[in-house]
Structure formats: C-alpha cells, structure tokens
Amino acid sequence: MSSRDLILARVRRALADVPQDDTPYDQAFARPYLREHGHRSVAETVDLLAENLADYRALVHRCAAGELAATIARLLAERGSAAVCVPTGLDPAWLAATDVTQVPDSAANTPDELDRVDSVVTACAVAIAETGTIVLDGSRDQGRRRITLVPDHHICVVRVPDQVVSSVPRGLERVDPARPLTWISGPSATSDIELDRVEGVHGPRTLEVVLVSAE
What we know:
Residues 49-212 form the LUD domain. This is Lactate utilization protein C. Helices cover 24% and strands 24% of the residues. The protein has 215 residues and is α/β, with parallel strands linked by helices. The protein has a 6-stranded parallel sheet with strand order 1-12-7-4-2-3, with helices on both faces. A 4-stranded mixed sheet has the order 8-5-6-9. A hairpin with a 4-residue loop joins strand 5 (126-128) and strand 6 (133-136). The longest helix has 14 residues, at 42-55. The termini are far apart. 31% of the residues are buried.
C-alpha cells in the first residue's frame, strides 16, 4: 500500500460515521470576521497606503492624471533607464513623454533579455492600505508575472481612489483567485540570520508606486 492509499484509507475511516447530508465544512461554522479595522475616510485610507508603502521602503509619488506621463518620464530619467518593459495593454499615453526604448511583454522574452531591461511600468489590480500591498493579477496592463520579477526597477501605477481598499478582505473581494496573483509589499528583500537586509534577491530592488488621482 502506498502512502497515498494509506492516507486516503484513514480519511475514509474518519468519515465513516458522517451522514451523507451533513452540513458542508465551509458552512458548519460562522466566521464573522471583520472586513475592516476602524473607520477611515477615502483620503485617510489613501494616506495609510502611502505610509505603509513607504514603511516597506517603496518610493511613493502622487500626481494628477494629467501629470502621469511626465511623472513616469521623470522617474525613468532619474533611474537612467535606457529600456523599459511594457505590458501589451498599458495605456500608451503613460509613456508618451519619454523616448526610452520600449520592450513589449511577450512570451518570447527570455530571462536574459528581461535582465537587460532597466525598468518595467505596470498598472495594478488593487492596493491594500492596511498592509501596504500592491496586487497584480496578470491583466493586460500588468503583463506576465516575470516582467515584474526580473527587471531591477518597477514603476507601478495605482488609480486613486478606485483601486485602493482598506483591508485584505476587501482586497480579496476585488481579485479572481484563478488568476496569477502577485502580492507585493515593498521591494524584494531578504535577511540572513544576522538580520543583514539584502534587496533585489527575488524581484525588483526598487519599487516606485505612483498614486494617480483623476483630478
């Protein structure tokens, strides 16, 4: 008997006296979890997001929609980026103010090609204020997961207030669990046993978040 057969046999024995019409597990217990913690205005929620992003060492910028292209161009110029990876569904107007070489997201991109790209610009699916977390879901304006993991510099645009929620439960309501979700809390970092922090180990060394408002 294999380990799998042994485990399944034990499960069957454990369920032997459970009636066929027994209440399903996911309905058996009430789970009245808090959906939000406290009461905040929209402005306070956005401020909390900015504060927690900065606490994770992300660089946070704010601008109006009409200033977005100039803001992205300035960030790429300050980084000295010569090439930027671009999701196929990204609004072309976002990069209209820069002449940096654009590398379209493609299944044909190799890791070596992406490693030679200086920056990547994406949108996001949702941003969670209480945890300072940006969620990507692989939509056309965000691209494949690898384009946000290999380049060393990620500029992520968050539409304020539409894409900002207060808590993780609220964020989960916005995303499809069947999609390839990437949850980002600050730039990639790790620490050894002596707590020496190293950034850029398994993702971008620098994360810049642009909170863009409609006004």
